[in-house]
Amino acid sequence: MNYNQIREECVAANKELQSLGLIDITFGNVSVLDPAAGVFAIKPSGVPYDELAPEQMVIVDLEGKIVEGDLRPSSDEPTHRRLFIELGDKGITSVVHTHSRNAVAFAQAERSIPCLGTTHCDYFRGPVPVTRSMTVAEVEGLYEWETGNVIVELFSKVNPLEVTAALVRNHGPFVWGKSGAKAVETAFALEIVADMAAKTLALNPDAKGAPAHLLKKHYDRKHGPGAYYGQK
What we know:
Elements lengths: L3 H16 L8 E7 L4 E4 L15 E4 L4 E3 L8 H11 L6 E5 L2 H8 L9 H4 L14 H5 L2 H11 L11 E4 L3 E6 L2 H24 L8 H12 L9
Helix pairs in contact: 1-7, 2-6, 3-7
């Protein structure tokens, strides 16, 4: 099969992460799913973003088999795969992982990112949650796969199509979306709202956050059935 489309989308999304300042060194990766073929393209491990080319993207199926590619996939590949297994039939075709500094700060503080204002409401219907701590067995076993599992556990309490990001405790953010470009945009928005939340809480540790009716209004005008934000 020809996987050029997902390879090219994957390269573009990975390079955009760097352009937006979401990447330090090689800490981060994007994957792009072809739902019909049941495979995804993912950044190869440790390759600098400036050197990425479509033919370097590794094609992996949903059982973890490398279908095409001469390089090793990102070490986070099993986490991406776990999220695609859970969300691929819901229209999610891209997963992003970064170590963006403000989002990581919340993950290291073991705190969800609270919904304090309308910027947050425009992207997420409520706080961006943080996972539980991973057990010794999970870390020493199939660590990256289990990382995906602790994210998926959150979906029993949070709609993953309305809050399209999670913080892995003591690690960092994973974000997902309906295209590589959309997932990267959301990762950028996540870093912005994490920065705003950290500054807000420094100024007022007792900030109560956006009231429910304001959250609903801002989220729905952009994402709801009667959305009217932007151009059609």
